[in-house]
């Protein structure tokens, strides 16, 4: 019989480069020290460590609240270690978390949440935590912890897309903007570098514009002052804003009647935003001022490169 649980996957990003730079002995010692600390922290929050996976850890928690507390504590503690560590030893952490039913076989766990947590860990950026909606059900934001909707994301091995959130964990600053004091987090540096090659393309009625990461923020709306104009009565004067945060393109709805987002391949899983925000990824469409059910709704195509 299955067991309801919350699964946590952690991964040290860049460990391969550390082994190449420092050799097996020293790199293995450092990775082992970090994974041992991760395991200890998971157990401190009431979790059960199922196994270590080279530079990662798989753990299970009986309750979601403890799992969320554990992953936030892990990122906060590890980020401080990264800031102090030698450059060649720096390995920022990625974390995936998912709730659901698993089967236990010979001390190991199997099932959909294991697959989802593993894939979310693979898909997220260094210093990020991605969680499925079930892991945050009935959880509340507090103590500098906020949940940002990323929308439906296709997970290999699943027929249906998974609704995903990013858990913002940084204590010192609001999640709307990130500044770092003193020595820079290498993950943040990598993100800034990646920004040079990232861009988002918007198209509507023959109008196509590309905006690079460092062009953002830009506004979308009905009046000519906006960087991307959608001249339709259902669209607010300034309807939405595109921002660049922590390596992601964020769609922020500021309209009167809301926005709907549909990611390619996810028909029927539209994301409704009313004064809310969502990460744009891949390709899709934005319905401004009315849902996709209205055939005449102004629909903007987007593509994040």
Describe the structure.
The chain has 305 residues and is an alpha+beta fold. The chain folds into two domains: 3-183, Nucleotide cyclase, GGDEF domain (Alpha-Beta Plaits); 196-304, Tumour Suppressor Smad4, CATH 2.60.200.20. 24% of the residues lie in helices and 36% in strands. The chain has helices spanning 15-22, 24-44, 64-84, 112-123, 186-195; strands at residues 3-12, 48-52, 56-61, 93-105, 108-110, 129-132, 146-153, 162-168, 199-204, 207-212, 218-221, 228-229, 240-245, 248-253, 259-263, 271-273, 277-280, 283-288, 299-304. Strands 1, 2, 3, 4, 5, 6, 7 and 8 form an eight-stranded mixed sheet that branches. The chain has a six-stranded antiparallel sheet with strand order 10-9-19-18-15-16, with no helix packed on it. Strands 12-11-13-14-17 form a five-stranded mixed sheet, with no helix packed on it. Helix 1 packs antiparallel against helix 2 and helix 2 packs antiparallel against helix 3. It starts with a strand and ends with a strand. The model is unreliable at 173-196 (pLDDT under 50).
């Amino acid at each position: 019989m299955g067991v309801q649980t919350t699964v946590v996957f952690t991964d040290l990003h860049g460990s391969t480069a550390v082994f190449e730079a420092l050799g097996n002995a020293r790199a293995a010692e450092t990775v082992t020290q970090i994974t041992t600390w991760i395991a200890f922290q998971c157990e401190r929050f009431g979790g059960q460590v199922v196994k270590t996976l080279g530079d990662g850890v798989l753990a299970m928690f009986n309750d979601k609240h403890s799992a969320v507390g554990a992953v936030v504590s892990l990122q906060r503690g590890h980020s401080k270690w990264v800031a102090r560590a030698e450059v060649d030893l720096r390995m920022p952490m990625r974390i995936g978390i998912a709730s659901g039913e698993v089967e236990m076989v010979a001390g190991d766990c199997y099932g959909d949440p294991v697959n989802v947590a593993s894939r979310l860990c693979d898909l997220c950026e260094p210093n990020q935590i991605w969680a499925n909606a079930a892991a945050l059900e009935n959880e509340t934001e507090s103590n500098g912890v906020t949940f940002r909707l990323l929308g439906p994301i296709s997970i290999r091995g699943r027929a249906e897309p998974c609704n995903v959130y990013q858990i913002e964990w940084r204590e010192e600053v609001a999640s709307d903007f990130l500044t770092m004091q003193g020595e820079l987090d290498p993950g943040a540096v990598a993100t800034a570098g990646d920004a040079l090659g990232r861009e988002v393309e918007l198209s509507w009625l023959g109008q196509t514009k590309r905006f690079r990461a460092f062009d953002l923020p830009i506004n979308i709306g009905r009046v000519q002052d906006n960087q991307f104009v959608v001249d339709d009565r259902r669209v607010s004067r300034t309807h939405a804003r595109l921002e660049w945060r922590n390596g992601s393109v964020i769609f922020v709805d500021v309209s009167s009647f809301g926005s709907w987002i549909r990611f390619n391949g996810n028909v029927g899983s539209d994301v409704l935003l009313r004064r809310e925000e969502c990460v744009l990824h891949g390709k899709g469409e934005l319905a401004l001022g009315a849902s996709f059910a209205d055939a005449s709704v102004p629909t903007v195509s987007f593509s994040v490169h």
